[in-house]
Amino acid sequence: FAQITAEESEDELPSREERGDARLREQDAAEGNNKGAVTEEAEGNGQRNGEEAEQPDQTPMLSNKPRKKKKKRKTKKPSAGETLEDNDLEDIDSLLEKIEDTNGLSQQTQSGLIVDSRPLLYIEHRNLNPENELKRYFGARAVLGDQRQRQRQCVRGTWLTTPQSTWPRYTRTGIVMQLVDTKGGVQYFTFEHHRKYQEVQLKFLENVETMDPNSVVPLLQALEPYHVDSLLLLSDVCRMQEDQEMARELVEQALYSLECSFHPLFSLTSGTCRLDYRRPENRSFFLALFKHLMLLEKRGCPRTALEFCKLILSLDPENDPLCVLLLIDFLSLRAREYTFLTRMFQEVESHRNLSQLPNFAFSVPLAYFFLSQQEERSELELSQAREKAARLIQLALIMFPSVLMPLLDHCSVQPDARVASHSFFGLNAQISQPPALNQLTSLYVGRTHSLWKDPAVMAWLEPNVHEVLRLVDARDPLVEESEHKRKTLYQNAPRNIYRHIILSEVKEAMAALPLEVTSQPVMGYDPLPPLDSIVSYTRPERTNHPSNESTLSLFCSSLPGRSSSALLQGDIRHERDEEAGAGQDLNQGVNRLMAAMRDMLANIQFQEPPRDDNPEGDGDWD
């Protein structure tokens, strides 16, 4: 046995004692059978018994055992090939999932529905990688099949994105992160632009004034291939042209550039690192994260998008400059993280009044309903979830009656005669609500109506709607109190809500934006900047365009040549002269304009500058 274990230590990785003993017993049994078969064929039954009796004194037989075992291992190794790597990846993922599931169940079954010792906004690095979520859906072999041939020229490890071999070689971009202050265990950081990067940024702002996206491309080709605002702007252009893959890659390059400039003390998972959105240098990181999570959600990775949403909220949880609180409930439901959503509501409701937001008022009871449908929970937990779901959905319907009819309309559900004819849920409920509340309800219905289409959800919603009508007819004091809150609380929406609606691009909410927001120019790289911005270096003032020109005409006039603007102006003149055919001509003009835009985007190419002799060096390009 001493010789056998010595051979194992030379060729195999160390393992636990229990596994080693089991393997030895199996090998001894197999080798004993093989030895008996060989001696029976060679010497007969009598000689076989004699050899078995003399076996303890024969050392050559012991020396042959490890050679047989070693030969077997050599034949197994090349037969595994690349399949071994895939199996290892799948085994690691399955082990991690089992560990996470086991911890979650043990914490939940101790006391009630929601028990978790980790912080609310705790972020796991592995949940920031969409490939891990896709591997759970399709398997590691399908997701990582093309990555074995990838050349890893970007050797620096990152958590937010995975650099690709087709990207330009990364060098110092001129963006650095500095530690500003530390208070009460919270660290405040900020991005800073060096002089070289400031020059590129000022040049970018000048080119943006031309309203021509093609003028931004030379900045990436010649000056700075990792200029963050240029990448974000071109990503929006590609997304409007329905090139989701290119849009996603441009946003990932921007995130990669920013992550490479992180301060050594900046942590994505601690939840104690802050960034001030009032500084323009920090806004790019917020916007890149938001655009990335929106693309992830459309890609079918809601769990990864939820992790990025938590990351944005942890950077400034008090101010929430992008108002991700209006989005985190939807991502939680899409990712089936019902426990997280209910826990967040319980912990944050006391000081943030989340129940006053329509999205939390309706999504939290929906999460409790889904929890009540999970058979693996105890009967006590299921009954508690059903009671909370019924109570909260009734409060939501009383507080926000204008949500029900548009929600049923989006779900293609016809209400019964009692609900349709009752004035509480009628058209008056939508007309009488303040504009700010109309924006919130329109945003929620337009974004999450697909989650309510489940027949089981509608069957649960119907009796609660009738119970609310019974309370209304009985003149319950809660109904009058809720009406008073609607008229007094939702007068003016804060600026971060407008910013969130613009970035989300939900058409129902965009149509409800006030005129003071839609009448001013909105730039995709910095939508609705804060009024109290902290400017670190001077930026050129934007040229004031005449107010009688539309955004489309200004953009057309900035395109090369005169054909696009003349075409649009000609269509407008034609509309004034001939009203009957103006709409058709205008549509043709816009179609030709979009065709020209597609040709322009097709000519955008990212050329990598010549590299230095030293591929590992990080100096500037020549």
Automatic annotation (TrEMBL):
PANTHER family: NULP1-RELATED (PTHR22684), RIBOSOME QUALITY CONTROL COMPLEX SUBUNIT TCF25 (PTHR22684:SF0). It comes from the Eukaryota. Residues 65-77 have a biased composition (Basic residues). Residues 1-88 are annotated as: Disordered. Residues 13-28 have a biased composition (Basic and acidic residues). GO terms for cellular component: RQC complex. This is Transcription factor 25. InterPro entries: TCF25/Rqc1, TPR-like_helical_dom_sf. Pfam families: Tcf25.
